[in-house]
Design a protein that fits this description.
The chain is built from 8 helices and 3 strands, in the order αβααββααααα. By secondary structure, the protein is mostly helical. It has a 3-stranded antiparallel beta sheet. Helix 1 crosses helix 2 and helix 1 packs across helix 4.
Amino acid sequence: MSIGHTLLGLLESGPRHGYDLKRAFDEKFGHDRPLHYGQVYSTMSRLLKNGLVEVDGIEAGGGPERKRYAITDAGITDVQLWLATPEKPEPYLQSALYTKVVLALLTHRDAAEILDVQRSEHLRSMRILTDRKRKGDLADQLICDHALFHLEADLRWLELTAARLDKLAEVVAK
């Protein structure tokens, strides 16, 4: 996820302070990983330097000055380009799990056990996500669906690999 583009998109509804941006980000996108204040302010500093935001006002208070940021026309264009650019699909061609299976075979360890343990871990994660999905709002349901679909694909791979383990052992032994 591009933090900068997300903060720019949040600014399109109107100028905000860094604190307000953090709160909006955490409410909409940070369920599992809220932003740190330092990350918000370092990102805003970079966006300011790049001309994608401007300081719309500065308020003095009991603590440090509070800057209010506004998106520039260049920032709006940047968000539009980012939204229109498709994300690169993650093919996972070099997975750690595949490496573990092959190394287990090479070192005469039980690769089937590695697959079984991993399958159990995937199923445990799926149960947690399914429970979260059941209790969550629409945004949380969609996030959980995305993760569940990936875990289902991994489970299919685990089953396929388990079914081909003897053949893979022959290939690896060469």
